[in-house]
């Protein structure tokens, strides 16, 4: 259906026609399930017309075997079966025979991988076990609502029996009582190593609760008992694969909703977040083999973090010096505590390093990264360079090169690999030598197969084997490839492609690879790479979208704000070179990465736009890069967009008198600013944007639970304050030039937006109204910062967005809700 040629008698018919047209198109989801050896891939096919379903694809026979089951969350049972759960419905598919078995009233699913059987906990509180043929093998009645499993051989359950709480161990063919107590059991969990079961008990006649550790999979004997604070939570962090454990307990804070008055202190690092401040903290080191428990004494309110060593620990006062200037509290005045000598060594303030490939400074999630054997850790004191430490806090060296990002220790802890925007680097610890590897030079390079075990400010980051799988992305050309480093040699596993690779799926040995790929004119499709240059279709979901293959895309290069930038131009569907067409410009930040994003009719950007629908309705759509230069975010965006227009308007088919600009959130701010400084647009749409950056700088957001001034060091890249650079803040503030807006503007937001306060939209609306500008503002009662596809807010906004463009760029003046503003006699 060519929507631009459809004439309808009412707005409702228009909406219904668009929705019916969109409903005809299906797509594959970018969420992929994988069996243990990657012999099978599960993927969801999304269809508004026929309903969603799951397809399970055999990668070993090149997709010749494909099964379809109900839309559900998948759990593979090795390579022989797969369980799908949706609500209380469960389906089991035998991958060998293709037989399916359906079960109802199921609360939870427990696979036992090593036995090729599974347990189903039903709402009659019975746990029943089945083999891969669907035959019931065993049943346990009167099961409680707590369970833990290693997913291999054993499930641990709680049960009330004879006024006592029991923990039962079962393998699916037999059961035994592992533990009994007079107390109520409030939590059971299997420790990460799988060797111990953690039990938390609520003592009935005591002001303390109890932590119990049981030996799992053997005798089930009790190996540790600890009295802990009432209602305390507990965490066991394995050190060097469970040779020892850091045990920490605390009572978590609770939000206080019914207080007479909230008191906010200017020196309070927990302002409005006291529920994040724990109390009654205790720390111990436990050695299972020696069954030795050592108290770790630290000052009150201090935290203890693992650096994967049983003698040395990170200690710090949380949020010391935190004034919300950074998005997350930094690790200040950190120390290494020596448990043997009961001594401390200062390592100073630790900064978060920059995360790879972001246009604005987005930071890594952890401050300290340790090796798998606990012999080394790295930290940054300036956010730019890494320093190498021994576990006792003695600094070995500082790696002077800036721009090294995610650190990953080699499997033998002799080298550290670093991701970067300039290829892959390795640091030889023994030689203290940094070397650029011949992988991804000049390109964004990431490591795909490393293990990351997190513990608040620290993380163990290492390669589990000697192999390293690297993703290499050319950001300028939007090209991606994958290489494997093995025994010093580099092997190409996925050759360079302009397709977007949503998922890379591979077996544990990294000998076979599959991908989920798409492009602007290619719906998501599964491919197999038996060899680097042997790409074979696995599964395309029988997606029918012939129209997308006809869409034409052009890239335009330009320079602005000191950078080389690109813009993506899409031609209207059924393009006629004898005509001129209106153009809609969508802005946010860098957008070149969207050049290979599938133009699904059902893909709705957060700003309510549907790019594919706009193309079908006869518009050019232009997605230019914008960036931040020395002038600031608003003036830089203005320069970028004007330079982008200069480049795109060399295309004579664009009607330069009929161009619209829109953006949401950060793009909404830029749209507001450009609307106050440009005369090149016929209409604007701005969604949930910041219109007053000084007001916003000094505002508080309940979405992030913090003052908003932190984003001016990240997204907005001002890197200063209004007090220190009033001129630049004033020059980049849209509201101060609101009287200069010279084209109609549609504003929208949600009154429940917890990211950008809706008062920002209201302020811009009030300014426009005061100066008698043509403005319509939409204040939705529900939704949040953006509206998910299919919600009433999204459906309504999408319709109004199309109306707005049709009215101002195509001259369709029979749209009543817009005419109410534009017709001067309408009042």
UniProtKB/TrEMBL annotation:
Coiled coil: none annotated. It comes from the Bacteria. GO terms for molecular function: serine-type endopeptidase activity. Transmembrane segments: none annotated. Keywords: Hydrolase. Gene3D superfamilies: alpha/beta hydrolase. Residues 643-810 form the Peptidase S9 prolyl oligopeptidase catalytic domain. The keyword Hydrolase applies. GO terms for biological process: proteolysis. Pfam families: Peptidase_S9 (PF00326). This is Peptidase S9 prolyl oligopeptidase catalytic domain-containing protein. It comes from Chryseobacterium gallinarum.
